[in-house]
Hints:
The structure holds 2 protein chains of 2 kinds.
Chain A: H1 6-12, E1 15-18, E2 24-27, E3 30-33, H2 39-48, E4 58-60, H3 83-99, E5 102-103, H4 114-121, E6 129-132, E7 146-149, H5 152-161, E8 163-166, E9 170-177, H6 186-197, E10 205-210, H7 212-215, H8 219-227, E11 236-238, H9 243-249, H10 258-268, E12 281-286, E13 293-295, E14 303-305, H11 319-332, E15 347-350, H12 358-368, E16 379-382, H13 387-395, H14 398-405, E17 408-409, E18 430-433, E19 448-451, H15 454-463
Parallel strand pairs in A: 3-4, 3-6, 4-5, 6-7, 9-10, 9-12, 10-11, 15-16, 15-18, 16-17, 18-19
Antiparallel strand pairs in A: 1-2, 2-8, 13-14
Chain B: E1 6-13, H1 21-24, H2 44-47, E2 79-81, H3 94-102, E3 106-109, H4 114-121, E4 126-129, H5 132-144, E5 149-153, E6 158-160, E7 166-168, H6 173-181, H7 185-190, H8 193-206
Parallel strand pairs in B: 1-2, 2-3, 3-4
Antiparallel strand pairs in B: 1-5, 5-6, 6-7
Amino acid sequence: MAGKTLYDKLWDAHVVRRQEDGTCLLYVDRHLVHEVTSPQAFEGLRLAGRKPWRVAANLATPDHNVPTTPPENGGRAQGITDPVARLQVETLDNNCDEFGIAEFKMDDIRQGIVHVISPEQGATLPGMTLVCGDSHTSTHGALGALAHGIGTSEVEHVLATQCLIQRKSKNMLVSIDGAVGPGVTAKDIVLAIIGEIGTAGGTGYAIEFGGEGIRDLSIEGRMTVCNMAIEGGARAGMVAVDQKTIDYVKGRPYAPTDEQWDAAVAAWRELHSDDDAQFDHTVRINGADIQPQVTWGTSPEMVVPVDGRVPDPAQQNDAVKADGMRAALKYMGLEANTPINTISIDKAFIGSCTNSRIEDLRAAATVAKGRKVADSVKLAMVVPGSGLVKAQAEKEGLDKIFIDAGFEWREPGCSMCLAMNADKLEPGERCASTSNRNFEGRQGQGGRTHLVSPAMAAAAAVAGHFVDVREF
Amino acid sequence: MEKFEKITGLVAPMDRSNVDTDAIIPKQFLKSIQRSGFGPNLFDEWRYLDHGEPGMDNSTRPLNPDFVLNQPRYQGAGILLARENFGCGSSREHAPWALLDYGFRVIIAPGYADIFFNNCFKNGILPIVLDASIVDELFQAVAANEGYSLTVDLETQTITTPNGNSIAFEVEMFRKHCLLNGLDDIGLTLQHMDDIRAYEARRTQETPWLFNP
C-alpha cells in the first residue's frame, strides 16, 4: 500500500464517521469567525434553539468592515460611520457575548485580519482542521493544518456540531524545484503557480506546496503561498511541518506548553507526505525560472513577469479564453503588447491577509526607505494585518520610514483588499496591490487592480509605474 | 430548505468564464445581516449603470440594456446557463442567496468553484455539471430560440430539452437525497451526536493540546 500524503494524514485523523457513498463527517478543531459571514449563522442557531457545540474552538474578530484611518484623522475611536457596517460589527460583538465566544474586538491590540491573528496567537496549530467563513482560510495550511473556507450555512453547521459534511478532495503536489532567485518572494511564487495551473487548476484538489523553493520560505512566506491556493481553485493549500513550523508556534499564547508541547511536537513531526505517497496530480516549476510577477487582467491567472508585456488575445487559440482576455483588457484600460514596466499607477495598497505580516512590511519598508512616493501617485497606503503587527512595525521604526516616504500608515483590517470599508478605488483608478484578487470591481467599482508583492508595490509607488524591484 | 423535485424554467445565458462571486453580489451588499433580499442586487455592477449601495430603491435605478438578464426575452428565467469555473473567488454564501432570491433554482455549467458549488446545495439550488461541448450546444440553442426552456428532473437526473431530447447529469447521492427532501444538514449531523462525542473523547487523549479551554 502506498504511503500517505500530508492531506491524507490530516483528513484521516479527523473523520468522525464515513457514509457508504464516501461522504464523511469531519471534525473541526478551530473555527474562526468574522462579522460578514456569521450573523445569519448565529441567527440560525438562535431560531433552532441551538448552542455552540464547543465554545472554546471558536475565535472571532471583526476585520472586513473596520475603518483603518489613523487616529489623527478621526480613526476608529469614533467608531464606524457607515450605519450598516456598524450594525454588522455590533452584531458580531453581541453574538460572541451571548454565546461566550472569545473575540478580539475593534479596540483590542490583538484585533486584525482573521488569517493574520490566528497564527499570530498560536490559535492555528499543525495537525488541526481549521475553517472560517472566508475563502482565504487556506492561509493556515502553511503550518501543516487542513484549513479551508466555508459558506455561512456551514458556519452554522460547525457552530452547532463542530463538524462538517465533506467529501475528500484529490491530492495535488505543486513543487518549486530549486531555489528562487534574489528579489523573488512568496507572492511571486504563488502568482507564478496560478499562472501555470490556471484559476480553476486546483478545483477538486487539496494542494500541498513543496520543493526547495517552498522549504526555503519563512512560515509567513508559506502563509502567502497557501493564502492564494484558492485563487488556483483549491480550497485548501498546505506545507509540511519542519523545524521552522515548530519554532514559529513555540511560545505563542494559544500554543501548548510543558509536557503537552513535547507530545505535540512529536506528533507534528509526522506531518509530511510519506516518501512513497501518491499524488493524483503533480506540477513542477523550476524555482530559478520564477521572476517578480504582475497581474495584467481580471483573474489572478492573468499574470506575467515584470519584464513581460500584456498578452495579445489574437495569439490565443481558445475562443472563450480570447474573449475573456479582450473583456479583461477593456476593463483594465490596457492595450495588448504594452510593456508591464510602462504601466502607471494611481494608488498603491500594501496589506490584506496575503501580505500584511511583519516580514511583508519589512520588505516594503526596505524599498521605501529614503525614497518618496511619486507625485503622480494619489495614495499609497500600508495597512498592517493586526494590532500586534502594527506595534512590532512601530517598534522597528517602519512606520516612520513609510510616513517619511509619503505612505499613509493605517490601523489593521482587510481594508482595500475588498473595499468593504471606506478604503476603495474610484472608477478607472489603477492600483498596485499586495492583495489576492484582481476581479472587476473588487477594490471599488471600476477600479483596476494589479497584484504584486509588497516590495514590488512599494517600488511602483515610488516610481509611479511598475518596475523590476531587483533593478530598483 | 425548499424541496427540489422537478423544475421547468426559462434559460438565461451568462456567456463568460470565471464569473466570480464578487460579480454575482458585490461586497457593499454583504454588510446585511439578513439572508434574503439580495435578488435585486444580483450582478449589480453589470446590471445597473449607476453605483449600487444598500438601501437604494433598485426599481428606479438605470438598467444596463446590454446586460443579458435585462433583455426582455430572459425575464422570469429560472435556469442560468454558465461557463467554466462559475462562482470562483470569495466564499460568500450571499452569492447563492442572491441567485435564489432572483429566481434561479438551477445552474448549468462545465464547472464550478468548490465552495460556491457546495453553498448552492445548502440553499436548494442545483448546480449541474455538463461537458463543455453540451454546454456550448445549449448556449447556441438558447441564442437561436426565444423562450428556450428546460425541464430538470432531479429524481431521474435528466434534463429535457424543448424537442424532447434528454441529457443525463451526475449528482452525489447524499446531496441528491438532501435536496429532494429539503433536509436540514445540522439535524442530520446531530443524529450522530454520540459519534462526535466518542471522537472527541478519543482525541482528547491522543491530542490534548487541541482541546485546551
